[in-house]
Amino acid sequence: MKNLVILGAGTAGTMMANHLVKKLPRKEWKLTIVDQYKTHYYQPGFLFLPFDIYSTKQVKKNGKKFIPKGVDYIQKKIERIVPETNKVLLEQGDELAYDILIIATGTKIAPDEIEGMNGPMWYKNIFDFYTYEGAKALRDKLREWKGGKLVVHITEMPIKCPVAPLEFAFLADSYFKNKGMRDQVDITFVTPLGGAFTKPKATKALHYLLEEKGIKEVTDFNIERVDYENNKIIDYADTEVEYDLLVTVPTNMGDAVIERSGMGDDLNFVPTNKGSLQTTDYENIFAIGDATNLPASKAGSVAHFEAEILTDNILRYIQGQPLKEEFDGHANCFIETGNGKALLIDFNYTHEPVEGTFPFPGVGPLQLLKESRTNHMGKMAFRWVYWNLLIKGVHIPFVSATMNEKGKHFEEVTQ
Amino acid sequence: MRKLIAHTEVEVNEEGYLTDFSQWTKEVGECIADENGICLTDRHWEVIEYIHEKYSCEEPLSIRGIKKSGVIDIKEFYKLFPGGPLKKATMIAGIPKPKSCI
Ligand SMILES: Cc1cc2nc3c(=O)[nH]c(=O)nc-3n(C[C@H](O)[C@H](O)[C@H](O)COP(=O)(O)OP(=O)(O)OC[C@H]3O[C@@H](n4cnc5c(N)ncnc54)[C@H](O)[C@@H]3O)c2cc1C
């Protein structure tokens, strides 16, 4: 009997368990998945929780429910991976041997990376919304906040779901309008990048949204510290931005288990072949989702595309065939723009998001890079798709793992 | 686009970054620095050397990487290349503007 072990039962790990249980002969392969928590969170919902659009119940479920029969589920913290002996050490001294290992431990926020961020004002007037706890604390704060300077801030790239902070700013605009207090709130978006959107083409096409919503923008801001006593963030060029309420996306890092195992880069992301998803250092270890160092978006949709390719490659690896280097960085994501509208973008390693239709060339119904109500419905439907199709590894109809170039108006990314 | 820098014709993109690193010379670097109002000192060259090293191993550049480089701290990096230090330093070093991974 051989062992395939999946580390992390989040979006990517759960999908892999569901894919592989159907593909690997049960007599030969034992499948095990490990996660420290009982709860599986719907992280895209953390964007809506602060604005009371989703309830806490809508963003969490018992994780075990999504692990298929035939897969062993172990709820324990992973202490260390020992690639030299093909073992994983769990808390309380348990050990798991593997023939093939899949790392899907994701990324999480590291507010300690910036001086003054995770200090006495954390969850008082400095919040994140990338965790369940943060999003919920922020919801409670927003319910009673009387207005002032709201600063929405990105600490450093890469972060998961890179458009989420901007969506947060758009939704905040709607939220305060609906509460009849928009005139008492000043919204500023602060980013280390040269523009509000992470891709230059999108920045050009979508800048009007910021103007339309009266959101100020501070770009090229590399934060050095939070001066929580005087409510200011300060960057290395000594630029200061004042806030009454700071909503920040702290540095995103891979889990500490990657560092403990000596397998990560500066940010604890696992060096991974960007086409095949095999780790660069160990041929029987693969990585998927937010845990990798791929220059692709860290998003559930990306993990979904990766999962189809990784499943193929695991089978090829077992049969001793060469791996396919097929993953092209395909990502698509809805961008909530407030007032019941959303945009959709679709791109990969080499193509920037542009206009067109999705998923059917020339037909849609979803419009790329244009605000519409249908797109908003798409974003809302994504929660259903997530719980019912995505993490169960069901192929989403008409959407392929690599990007379809028909019906889209492309320009290659230039260096 | 072609551009005459330091008496040599080089290929640059619309933002002024060299598109072919093999066309870079120290003189080209000095001229680009000059256009950006920067006069290159030994310290600058140490940083440019570090950037070239990273570029040749295809390691992406980032502010965090600079912090850990052991060559320079970020405060000084900002002083040497005022404005956007990574953007300016890479332009002078003749390599593409760092892409922020999305
Ligand atoms: C606010 C927000 C909005 C988002 N919006 C979207 C969106 O609209 N569309 C989209 O596609 N994506 C979105 N995402 C991103 C998406 O949620 C993630 O990219 C996706 O969940 C990544 O899956 P993953 O399996 O790689 O990591 P995760 O789902 O984070 O799973 C990692 C798992 O590993 C476990 N783990 C880690 N370390 C250990 C350890 N040492 N021991 C035991 N267990 C461990 C964790 O407990 C966790 O369950 C959003 C994310 C956020 C935060």
From TrEMBL, chain A:
It holds the Pfam family Pyr_redox_2. Residues 3-151 form the FAD/NAD(P)-binding domain. GO terms for molecular function: oxidoreductase activity. InterPro entries: FAD/NAD-bd_sf, FAD/NAD-binding_dom, SQRD. SUPFAM superfamilies: FAD/NAD(P)-binding domain. This is NAD(P)/FAD-dependent oxidoreductase. It comes from Pelagihabitans pacificus.
Automatic annotation (TrEMBL), chain B:
It is found in: Cytoplasm. Its main location: cytoplasm. Pfam families: DsrC. GO terms for cellular component: cytoplasm. Belongs to the DsrC/TusE family. NCBIfam families: dsrC_tusE_dsvC. This is TusE/DsrC/DsvC family sulfur relay protein. It comes from Pelagihabitans pacificus.
